[in-house]
Each structure stands twice: as structure tokens, then as C-alpha cells.
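REVIEWER CHECKLIST
Item 1: Sequence provided? yes
Item 2: Single chain? yes
Item 3: Sequence as submitted:
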Amino acid sequence: MPGISSERAEELVRELRRRARRRLRVDAFDADVLIYAAAPTNKLGASIRALVGRTRTQDAIGSVLADPELLLKPTRFQLADEQASLELLLAQLVLHPVSYGCTQLAVRLGARYGLNTVDSVHLATAVLAGADRFVTNNRRDFTKEITEVDVTYPDEIQ
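Item 4: Structure as written out by the authors:
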């Protein structure tokens, strides 16, 4: 079977470069920073709100576990404003389901980095989704030692 022509190869390379320039950045979010973002007066929240809102230049994702993690307290204590703010923020994210593959990766990541169950699922979701970075303010558990995705703290966002 003959190979492709050099013209076709050059065309494919140009197309790949065009796609790379158009590629959306994928940001995955830990629940803690979403709580900041839902609070209008939180200093760190402003950068997170701006980041979640940049749908043209990035994709904002999270785990479906963010839903109960964020909404249990305001629902239980009938904090309607807080609940509405969090629901609005969550609606801007693509929430990924927790699949068997995700749980298997969460086990490995949790064991490697000493994470609890929920944190390991958030990280595994980011890795499986091909996130460019994982945005969290949990510096104790999510250190820069994590190599599977770029861990980014709110004060590093420009």
C-alpha cells in the first residue's frame, strides 16, 4: 500500500496545528474552590468565577460528586441564596460520572498521594477527562508532587 503524498502530509500537519491552536483548555475543579466562587465577597472566588465563565477558551469540568459535596449543607439548613449560587455555578460545569475506570484510577491515585476517597475521585476525574489543570485550594492534600495533571491554586490564576 503506497504512503501518503508529501502534499497530503503537509496538509495534515497544518490541520493538526490549526486544531492545536483552537484546542480548549480543560480546567477541572475541586469542590473547595467552587464554594469560594459561589460567595460574591470571597477574594479568591473572583478568579474562580472568571475562570469558570470563560467557556470560549476553556472547558470547566468536575465530578458529579461535587453536587452532593456542595449542596448538602445549604439544602439541609435551607440556605436558599447559597444553594442557588452553588447550583448556578455547577450548571456551568460539565460534571463527569464516576465510572468503574474512574474508581480504579482513584484507588491508585489515592494510595500514591495519600488522598481520601472523595479527593481521589475528583483527581481521577480530572486525569481521565484530560484536564490541563486541577484547580484547588487544598494545598495539604493536592501538592505539586502530583504529576498526572497540573495542580493550580487560586492565587496562581491570572
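Item 5: Key structural point noted by reviewer: The mean pLDDT is 88.
Item 6: Recommendation: ____
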